[in-house]
Design the sequence.
């Protein structure tokens, strides 16, 4: 199948349908007839709310150690729904493909998406395929939109409004691996690394947490802008002071080394399988234990605490024994990391 | 505000948030705090099913007579939900922006999206903004994903399974205007036209139809591939013969003229505010009357009928008194028409 995507694959006629059938329909488990909208068969529990999230993926390169754009798009959307405390039900997928893109690569990416959806226990439904001329997009962009339901007892986990003094912040593992893995895979860079992206669905982990603990006050995955961005957003939403112990935030040695060489702050680097959980002071040990028992959280650790104070701030207790403010990352970080 | 989008607007840090707040948040009526997923406040009626649809919009040019990429993205998504017989509840929006894109144009497009959502009685929720380098995408791509609910009595309208002999096909107005309007707005073409895109939300029309009629057997909007593509898909889904009277399919005079000059078939051209409704033989007159009473359907007419036969086909009774097969459009139609 040494074929390439052509503009006629995007015309909505016979070639469009052939491409969709050949590449997507069966792999995604989408039943005929193909319609423009998908009816979600699962019924949503009474009293639950519908949750929706959408993200465009423009990662460069499309394939990187530990993943590819397809796996990234599926996990990213699953994780956005998961950290809101909701259950993912279905994912809609939209492709923008550059003319000349190899059909074989599209198949690999579609397989990767199907595999990740199956692993996470969700389904790919409804899709769209647009083709643009050579040079009008950079090979392939994917937008995934997740739909899920939120039970009443899990509301407000994403808003930060439940966060209160004494809460502990728990992270599920080392930061920065995704950004370094993608960067290392770019042809124009002079370093090579063995670092793998942490790209991973977190829904089974978050479901264990919210099902078993009553004091989950906030969860968020640490994507673009990394830990630093999320902590600063939380500070603004919850109007609180957050203290973080630098030594307790895990950073893998190769990531730390490359950050020093390249001048990056690992706290601002994108992750694709990391989250922070803010848990009440009476329950954080139990939360930590649950997280460590899950394959996506065995490296979890408590990294900080919510403390009283008038002006919202994120304060880092440094390894050297000092204090510094963690700011919202500003200016150009690493473009097209997700 | 003579600003341009830069790569740092896509980094997930301060500049990302500033751009989102300045351009989107208030216009879209999205409340702070900004989170990655939106909880949909409207409750879905008991027994209803969730419906989801997603589409990428890559139209070239971004602004054309009768609309722009933003209006197109919102109406297109509303219409996909509407023709399934469902009610639109919320739309999630994802932007891929080329570095250097004028913020003013982004504001115009955002305003156009907000206006169209308001007109149609729906809401824009949850969004995403990615920025790619100069030359890595063609100015702006938008992916919109709609969520709605389907009442049990309106199921199977999109599947074609209810279609039966004697059903009539009704169209809500002339075909081909969107494609000709977009084509005429392209700089590299030598003709100019006063044709406006028919870009329009159809949800109020479809709701009137399904609320008042019990024999609605199929509905579909006529986008990429036009009337010809939809009729061929319906033929396959319903395993039926469809006859269409050429004289009864409305085509505006300037569209017909340009099609003759340029060698296009108006039946294969994309529309963005047209649909066909297949109604039972005892009810089609009532459906036609309801459609004609709506601003989106005052030009409605019966264009054909479902007849008995062994082999699925779409047969055109031509103006000249002959018969010909309408095929699924094949090969390159008009790229980037939506």
Sequence:
């Amino acid at each position: 199948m040494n074929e390439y995507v052509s503009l006629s694959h995007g015309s909505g006629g016979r070639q469009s349908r052939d491409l969709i059938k050949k590449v997507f329909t069966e792999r995604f488990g989408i039943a005929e007839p193909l319609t423009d909208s998908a009816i979600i068969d699962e019924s949503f529990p009474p009293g639950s709310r519908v949750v929706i999230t959408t993200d465009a993926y423009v990662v460069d390169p499309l394939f990187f150690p530990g993943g590819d754009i397809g796996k990234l798009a599926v996990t990213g959307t699953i994780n956005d729904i998961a950290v809101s405390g909701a259950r993912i039900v279905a994912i809609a997928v939209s492709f923008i493909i550059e003319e000349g893109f190899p059909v074989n690569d599209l198949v690999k990416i579609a397989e990767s998406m199907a595999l990740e959806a199956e692993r996470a226990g969700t389904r790919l439904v409804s899709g769209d395929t647009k083709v643009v001329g050579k040079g009008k997009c950079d090979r392939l962009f994917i937008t995934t939109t997740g739909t899920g339901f939120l039970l009443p007892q899990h509301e407000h986990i994403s808003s930060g409004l439940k966060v209160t003094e004494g809460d502990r912040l728990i992270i599920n593992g080392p930061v920065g691996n995704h950004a370094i893995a993608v960067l290392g895979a770019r042809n124009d860079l002079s370093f090579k690394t063995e670092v793998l992206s942490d790209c991973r669905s977190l829904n089974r982990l978050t479901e264990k947490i919210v099902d078993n603990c009553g004091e989950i006050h906030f969860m968020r995955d640490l994507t673009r802008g990394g830990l630093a961005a999320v902590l600063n957003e939380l500070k603004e939403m919850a109007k609180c002071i957050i203290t973080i112990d630098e030594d307790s935030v895990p950073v893998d040695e190769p990531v730390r080394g490359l950050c020093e060489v390249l001048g990056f702050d690992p706290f601002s680097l994108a992750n694709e399988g990391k989250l922070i959980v803010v848990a009440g002071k009476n329950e954080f040990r139990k939360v930590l234990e649950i997280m460590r028992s899950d394959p996506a959280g065995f490296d979890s650790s408590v990294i900080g605490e919510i403390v009283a104070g008038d002006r919202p701030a994120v304060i880092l207790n440094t390894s050297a024994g000092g204090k510094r403010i963690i700011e919202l990352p500003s200016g150009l970080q690493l473009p097209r990391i997700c």
